[in-house]
Amino acid sequence: MGYRDADGRLRWRGPFETITAARAERGDARTRARAGERESANPRLRFGEAAERWLTEQVAQLRPATRAIYRNAVRNHLAPRWGRRRMDAIDVTDAARLVRDLRADGLSEWTIAGILKAAGRVFKFARRHCRWRGENPVELLEKGERPKVGTTRERRIFKGDELAQTLAASTEPWSTLFRLAGVVGGRESELLGLWWEDLELRDLDAATIRFAFQVDRDGERVPLKTEESKARLPLPRSTALMLLEHRARTPAPTTPRSFVFGTRNGGPLGQRNVLRALYRAQERARTPDGLPTFPELFEADERGHLVVGAGGEFVPRNVGRRELRLPDFHSLRHGAAMDCDDAEEARDLLRHRNSNVTRAIYRAHFDDRRRELLRARMETRMETSTRGSREETTSKSRGEVPDLQRIRETRQ
């Protein structure tokens, strides 16, 4: 069956089982042509081919961490499902099925959203650079079919005395790093990227910290990716004193362009070493009764009692950290955010793009905070109205004329 497309080019389709089917297809093609709908100049383009070109030509220009995220999304999740399929054959039903399958595999909603973002980027790249004219099925997903990032389970933070006991079990310079993270809510890479010139400590009552750089996975100091993440924040006086004490005792260089948390050779501390130090501190942390702060790190018998070794020490469990829902370094950032009064204050501290991002992450927490504030205001109104009614009743029983002005002022 032959027809002319919107550009006037003669195109052929078929074969068809019946002449009726051919005529129906030709009618649909002519309708699309009259509407100006252009056809793909590369209809046989496969998703895997477009995805590899996207990784090579565009993603290669991005930062190492971003490259690793996109590469993982394409090669571990998208290519096994869509790699050999023609892009014209991938529709919105396939995109919705992808979300369901990834969710069934146990991936978090944020991870699924990242994979879906990579898929959408591949389709956009194919339209711009691969002469493909099809629809992007990711853009056609409805809200209910997309990842529900707002329903991500609540972040694990340090509760009660867990943080204090962990800090008591840690050593320098890790203690200072952990304390600073819990105050300013900085990311691990941002804190490790600090130079001494980023700290203004001359006036302890007006001390500040400036975030503009981070350390990447290769140990290189690079600018922060977004302008919103760059900011200067105030430092409490006690935190400024802690940093001055750290500078006085650290064996690392302390020139203005030296790392605040550095090695003797002048390089930044490694991110893996930071996590190891936090894990060791959690294993050593003890309650005032001498019990482990995090008992899930140690073996227990069938009655739930901790197992004690021959030397009187608790026996560590042979279990992966990912299997245990313990606070990690990022929990220090979450804890700082949850100390804020509302999402706007948390957005300023965490330096998110806007407060909607903050609300999506901490929605449950701030909803609870608002409910508590509302309950307190309702309680105040109830007490005020009850007190006023009690005073009116007392005045009537004594035959006194009530002081209406005083009652109104009390109610207000």
TrEMBL record:
Keywords annotated in UniProt: DNA recombination, DNA-binding
Protein name: Site-specific integrase
All copies of domain Core-binding (CB), residue ranges: 45-127
PANTHER family referenced in this protein's UniProt entry, alphabetically: INTEGRASE_RECOMBINASE PROTEIN MJ0367-RELATED, PHAGE INTEGRASE-RELATED
Superkingdom of this protein's organism: Bacteria
GO biological process, one term: DNA integration
Family of the protein in this entry: Belongs to the 'phage' integrase family.
Domain Tyr recombinase: 153-375
Region of interest (Disordered), residue spans: 378-412
InterPro entries in alphabetical order: CB, DNA_brk_join_enz, Integrase-like_cat_sf, Integrase_catalytic, Integrase_recombinase_N, Tyrosine_recombinase_XerCD
Molecular-function annotations in GO: DNA binding
Stored SUPFAM superfamilies: DNA breaking-rejoining enzymes
